[in-house]
Amino acid sequence: MSSPRRIAVIGHRGWASSAILGALAASSASVKVLHQADSDVSGVPPQVTTTLVDFADVPALVEALRDIDIVISLVGPPGVEKQQALVKAIPQTNVQLFSPSDLAARYDGQGLSIPVNKAKLEVENAARSACIPITIVLPGNFAEFALSTPAMGIDLENNKLIHTIDSDKQSLNVCTRSYVAAAYVSIFAETPISQLKDRVIGLSELTFSGDDLAQALHARHGRFPTLFRHSREKVDSEIEAALTQGSPFSLPWYCRKIWGTGQQRTMIGQDIWEVQDFPKASLESLVTQGHVESYRELPSFVQEYFRSTFVDG
């Protein structure tokens, strides 16, 4: 009988990362969380070990990664650049695979002008330059983010919908948090490492167009949603203004745009991973029946900003 896969996780407290950690902890893998001094580990599953690290101390990172097979980073935007310390440490260990934090999609030039996307690519490129085998996981968009917040121009409760460019006809690829967590177990805890090296793996649980969504909203509310439309010129101007101002709203505007142009569905690539024996969500279940889970709580000013965009433009 083979030994359990030994996995180190960096970034354990986030909305998505906590679910992924929980799923890995419940798997056959042996899981360790590497955390900084200011990181609360009280919610870490009891079977998971924890190790305090300082990302500025590469020798300490090397020691923390002793006897680790796979390093999975799930850090949020503020921690993306800190992964460069892992790139320095991993070549000095016996780690066989590194999965940098991504949980999004492959972006074009405009998308890479958004600072967090650029930083993710820089980490990936640095890992490749250091000859570290990597695996990137791309779910496209979280269903809970797309459907439970107004960020993508969808307001389920108030039955409002923005069609951005051609998003009424173009498909959006989404995955629920539980599907992504199950995929991480399937990929990293159950699949031979030799089959994972240097792959960009896409996840696709559900795709739908704006018209599909309008039909689901009609079934939920008994009437079609109030529709708004945004042109390409509108979203491009909003993206560029946000970038100029250093505003975090450049990313959601960009996400609306790539749905509307049809790019988003292709940006997860063609290497699509299927999670066996996991029932996929449906638009009927998530929207019509209202079973979509909440996303992490957004600040009130962010919610207000997104709701202010429900006008024609």
At CATH level 2, the architecture of the largest domain is 3-Layer(aba) Sandwich
Global mean pLDDT: 96
Low-confidence parts: none
Report the sheet with the most strands, covering strand number, pairing sense and barrel closure. Answer: 5 strands, parallel
Count, helices:
13
Helix content: 25-40%
Output the CATH class name of the largest domain. Alpha Beta
Q: What structural class results from the helix and strand content?
A: alpha/beta
Structure summary, number of beta strands: 13
Strand portion:
15-25%
Report the principal-axis shape: globular
Q: Order of SSEs, N→C?
A: EHEEHEHEHHEHEEEHEEHEHHHEHH
List the strand order in the largest sheet. 3-2-1-4-5
Keywords:
Rossmann fold; NmrA-like; three-stranded parallel beta sheet; NmrA/Isoflavone_reductase-like; UDP-galactose 4-epimerase, domain 1; 313 residues; 2 domains; five-stranded parallel beta sheet
Write the layout of secondary structure elements.
Layout: E1 6-10, H1 15-25, E2 30-35, E3 49-52, H2 58-64, E4 70-73, H3 84-89, E5 97-99, H4 109-112, H5 115-129, E6 135-138, H6 143-148, E7 154-155, E8 160-164, E9 171-174, H7 177-189, E10 199-203, E11 206-209, H8 210-221, E12 226-230, H9 232-245, H10 250-261, H11 263-266, E13 272-273, H12 283-288, H13 300-308
Parallel strand pairs: 1-2, 1-4, 2-3, 4-5, 6-10, 8-12, 10-13
Antiparallel strand pairs: 7-8, 9-11
Domain NmrA-like: 6-223
Pfam family, one: NmrA
Organism: Emericellopsis atlantica
